[in-house]
């Protein structure tokens, strides 16, 4: 043990022996031996930081020691040292503080183990990993920012009514044979229904129409007329200002009990009658019109517009103008969010592309830094033997592409590098020619890279469009063709292969 450590322990023992007053502080004497040129680091001086400097005390030849007597800045220096020990306990393993560490252990203190220092190789690996991590884009934030919150489309729902959930109305049996007597009776019932409608007896009109349908279930016009009665009832309710239905600009005046109109507000019943009419006669303009108007009453604007468009083609009616504005709004709303969703998917694809490109570039630079390219050069003879004469070689990664190009270069062969994509029409157009040219020029190495499969290779070659052809000889790019020009491609290969 050095004299400075012995002096510190002696002073400490004297101080501890005379400490009878609880107000007295236990003061440590830290003596650090620092020989010129020894290269030892003074831990007390190192830990003092920029805020406070602990006085360095050296043992002189006479053995005189300078003690910290607790006055002024000495207490602050001691406090700072204790704080540094708390924040970084590994400093206690410094050889200059061995006496202090031994003392703490004698009191039962447990000293945390010293953190091992990583060697240079580990630092290189750490740096490479940090470089790779830094190259990775933060996709979580982008995904959150790309969340699409679909807003509600503003529609004019002034004439929308509540749906009816009554049991279905009576339907006739279309399989029975209708006699002339039944047809005549059905016509009489229909006439009665028309009279009842004109008199405002709508409930009675529907009963007459139901009777006519039962007599002649094969008449599409009867179903459509009864369905029209349901719609007409709704129109009357709108015009009279029923509390369950908003007012409408249509002007009709009929003095009919509101209770009857509420019971007859049945757009779903009108749709059922329209469906029955269209099953019997698919070209029934009235059937499409009634169903379209009923769907409009329920707020089914797109379906209503489709029905009324068909009705207008069969027999033009101005009713289509009542639903077109809302139908157009819904159609535009749907197209808008379809476009936004497609743009979001494209952004995701672009971010994934950038991420893979960054990873590939980082991996390439990391391998280059770690000296792995030399290994690839060592495997060039093996790669050269894998060059298939007269065939197109598919490439899956940038590493594989580099090996093939190195092998072609070592063999002094011309390499034609073809970047393509499965979704590219011109690529499909020129692909058969590229394959045939590979058979025609067996000494030329034909390489094909799908930019969606080997994104790292496409990124390294800065591919902006497909098809793109590179001509490489002796490791250097000597020519390039962009586009599906068959004659130009064939001329270039013949020119450079000779």
Automatic annotation (TrEMBL):
The chain crosses the membrane at residues 229-246. One of its GO terms (molecular function) is Hsp70 protein binding. Keywords: Membrane, Repeat, TPR repeat, Transmembrane, Transmembrane helix. InterPro entries: Hip_N (IPR034649), Thioredoxin-like_sf (IPR036249), Thioredoxin_CS (IPR017937), Thioredoxin_domain (IPR013766), TPR-like_helical_dom_sf (IPR011990), TPR_rpt (IPR019734). The keyword Membrane applies. Gene3D superfamilies: 6.10.250.3420, Glutaredoxin, Tetratricopeptide repeat domain. One of its GO terms (cellular component) is histone deacetylase complex. Residues 373-498 form the Thioredoxin domain. GO terms for biological process: response to stress. Residues 1-22, 362-385 are annotated as: Disordered. Residues 1-21 have a biased composition (Polar residues). Residues 373-385 have a biased composition (Low complexity). This is TPR repeat-containing thioredoxin TDX like. It comes from Actinidia chinensis var. chinensis (Chinese soft-hair kiwi).
